[in-house]
Amino acid sequence: MLITWLRWKESKDPPKKHEYRWIRPHQGYLSLNADGAVKNGSDQQAGCGDVIRDGNSSWVCGFAKALGPCSAFVAELWGIFEEILITKDRNKTRLEVQVDSKAVLQCLTSSKNGSI
Length: 116
Hints:
Blueprint: E1 2-5, E2 30-38, E3 45-53, E4 59-69, H1 72-89, E5 94-98, H2 102-109
Parallel strand pairs: 1-5, 2-5
Antiparallel strand pairs: 2-3, 3-4
GO molecular function: nucleic acid binding; RNA-DNA hybrid ribonuclease activity
Pfam families: RVT_3
InterPro entries: RNase_H-like (IPR053151), RNase_H-like_dom_plant (IPR044730), RNaseH-like_sf (IPR012337), RNaseH_domain (IPR002156), RNaseH_sf (IPR036397)
């Protein structure tokens, strides 16, 4: 399986606001858009969801999952992991992963070894 980690786009207008948008994958690749979230409160319930789209932005597959208590960082990583397993089972071998978390992007693209 060939995976490329992508893409982060920040809008310069107005300052401190981010613009996140789908970016067409390279020819022959599918695009995985991942997200994780945590409900504020004492129990910190988290969930994740992903969608895979082709180069025409057509839906290929996706999922949503309740995870229980964890951080948004872990929820987003969990979603990426689940979707990689799904695409592997479907024999999809070229995948570009798009995330909206700089921390997740840095974790996945870092050359450092070790646990998170």
